[in-house]
Each structure stands twice: as structure tokens, then as C-alpha cells.
């Protein structure tokens, strides 16, 4: 019996190998028995849900085909794979790389293709995480084109001209939510401490611009605009992209919950 992650690392499959007699052939003048190996899929386990509960259900469904000791082994293996993937995303985030898909080893060709990567796990087996996140995107002004700068500036100018000052941060928030929802792990784990600190510095600039730069008292702003700010954030959390905010479950689980709630409504 063995386990393998699917290509997107969202679940893993349990397989049972079984050899069966398949006849005789002549080999060097003597009859030789031939056996055929069948790999039967026993179950698929969702990595974003309760792994132990799903494996317990597998025991009930498969009878004596899987023991409790093997369940513990597969449970520990699955958690170690999830942890490796989450650490890889965090490592990329520190380098300014976001999104992408985990590379699950499928054969020797992955050794040939990715072995030069410093993060590649040479000891990874087929069906395990290789250590590489492919198609990650670097986020930063250095990669922006002049056209993108122009479009952003035009968008900001339009907001200011129409008095939509409360929407100035919306493009930033939506960008952060896209990054969060394309990542693995939990919301509070996506940004490193250093990145969260930098985001706080950015937020403080707007606050100080208003209170110090424009000489507006914080107490007056609190009295007049606090409820509107709370209502705007509440509405954000009710959107598909913002549903993950203020929650502790795995992002993959929260995305499924969001889709269910939207379909239900």
C-alpha cells in the first residue's frame, strides 16, 4: 500500500498493489510464470479537510485492507508534505515571489528538470512534493511596465477627481487578496513578519498623511467615519475574495466554504 499526492497537491490517493498470476511464457527453454500487478485506488483524501477523520472512514470502508498503524503512518506523511509545501511558499514570499503551483515528483524527468534548483528535494519520491513551486510571480515595481504605471496613476486620479477617496486602497487590498487566495496554508501564515511590518509602514503613511500632513484630529475622524470604515470592511469580508479574512482554517477550505455560501445565497 502506498500514497501519492495529486498533481495540484490538494489531495492524496491511497493505492493497494496486488499481483495476480497471468500465465506462462518460455524463457531460455523453460516455462516461466508471469504475474500482473494491479494498483487499485482505495481512497482520495482531501488535504484541506480533517485528514484523520477521512482516514478513519477509509478503515470502515476498506475493512481489513488498511490497519490503524498504516493510517497513522499515512497521516504523518500527509502532514509532513503539507508542511513542506507551506514552508516553500513562505520561503518564496520572503524572496518576493507569490502564487504558483507545487511540483509533485512524477519521475526521473523531474530530477533532470529541477535538480539544479537549490530548493529541490533530491530524496523526494514519486507522488511527493519536490520542493519546487513553479510559475511563481515576482511582485514589485521593478517588474512593472510604463503602461501599468500610467494606468494605475489614471485610476487614482479618477478616484480623486470624483471624490472617491474611500476607494483609493481598494486596488491594493484586492491585490493582497489575490495573493492570499492563490496560496497554501492559513491566512496568518502567508506574509512573513518582515512583509507584515512593511505593510504596516505603508498603512501608517496614509494615516499620518491625513492626521499630520492635513492637520486632521484622529478623534474627529473616528467620530465621523469609524462606522463607515467598519461597514466597508464588513462588506469586504462577505465577498468571495475577502471571505478568508479573520479566519483560521486552511485557505483551500475557506475557498470551498465561500463558493458554497455564494451558491446557497
Helical residues, percent: 40-55%
Low-confidence stretches: 141-145
Q: What kind of oligomer do you see? A: single chain
Total E-strand runs? 7
- Into which percentage range does the β-strand content fall? 15-25%
> Mean of residue pLDDT?
84
Give me the Rg, rounded.
26 Å
Number of spatially distinct domains: 2
Structural class: alpha+beta
Number of helices: 9
* Main sheet: strand order: 1-2-3
Principal-axes shape call: elongated
Largest sheet: 3 strands, antiparallel
Order of helices and strands: EEEHHEEHEEHHHHHH
In whole angstroms, the N-to-C terminal distance is: 43 Å
Features:
elongated; two-stranded antiparallel ribbon; three-stranded antiparallel sheet; 9 helices; 50% helix; 265 residues; alpha+beta; single chain
Task: Note down, in words, how this protein is organized.
- The radius of gyration is 26 Å and the shape is elongated.
- The protein has helices at residues 51-62, 68-94, 108-114, 146-161, 170-181, 187-190, 193-213, 218-237, 251-264; strands spanning 2-5, 11-27, 30-46, 97-98, 101-104, 129-134, 137-138.
- The protein folds into two domains: 2-137, no CATH class; 174-264, no CATH class.
- The protein contains nine helices and seven strands; from the N terminus they run βββααββαββαααααα.
- The strands form three sheets. A three-stranded antiparallel β-sheet has the order 1-2-3, covered by helices on one side.
- It has 265 residues and is an alpha+beta fold.
- 15% of the residues are buried.
Amino acid at each position: 500500500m502506498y500514497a501519492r499526492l495529486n498533481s495540484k497537491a490538494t489531495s492524496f490517493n491511497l493505492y493497494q498493489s496486488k499481483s495476480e498470476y497471468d500465465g506462462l511464457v518460455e524463457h531460455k527453454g523453460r516455462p516461466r510464470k508471469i504475474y500482473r500487478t494491479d494498483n487499485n485506488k482505495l481512497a482520495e483524501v482531501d488535504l484541506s479537510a480533517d485528514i484523520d477523520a477521512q482516514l478513519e472512514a477509509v478503515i470502515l470502508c476498506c475493512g481489513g485492507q488498511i490497519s490503524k498503524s498504516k493510517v497513522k503512518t499515512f497521516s504523518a506523511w500527509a502532514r509532513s508534505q503539507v508542511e513542506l509545501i507551506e514552508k516553500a511558499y513562505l520561503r518564496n514570499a520572503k524572496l518576493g515571489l507569490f502564487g504558483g503551483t507545487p511540483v509533485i515528483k512524477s519521475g526521473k524527468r523531474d530530477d533532470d528538470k529541477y535538480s539544479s534548483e537549490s530548493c529541490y528535494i533530491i530524496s523526494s519520491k514519486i507522488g511527493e512534493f519536490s520542493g519546487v513551486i513553479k510559475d511563481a510571480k515576482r511582485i514589485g515595481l521593478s517588474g512593472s511596465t510604463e503602461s501599468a504605471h500610467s494606468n494605475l496613476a489614471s485610476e487614482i486620479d479618477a478616484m480623486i477627481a470624483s471624490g472617491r477617496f474611500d476607494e483609493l486602497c481598494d486596488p491594493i487590498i484586492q491585490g493582497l487578496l489575490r495573493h492570499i487566495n492563490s496560496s497554501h496554508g492559513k491566512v496568518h501564515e502567508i506574509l512573513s513578519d518582515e512583509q507584515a511590518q512593511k505593510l504596516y509602514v505603508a498603512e501608517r503613511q496614509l494615516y499620518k498623511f491625513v492626521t499630520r500632513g492635513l492637520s486632521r484630529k484622529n478623534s474627529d475622524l473616528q467620530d465621523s467615519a469609524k462606522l463607515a470604515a467598519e461597514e466597508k470592511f464588513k462588506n469586504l469580508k462577505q465577498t468571495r475574495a475577502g471571505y478568508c479574512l479573520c479566519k483560521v482554517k486552511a485557505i483551500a477550505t475557506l475557498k470551498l466554504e465561500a463558493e458554497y455560501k455564494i451558491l446557497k445565497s
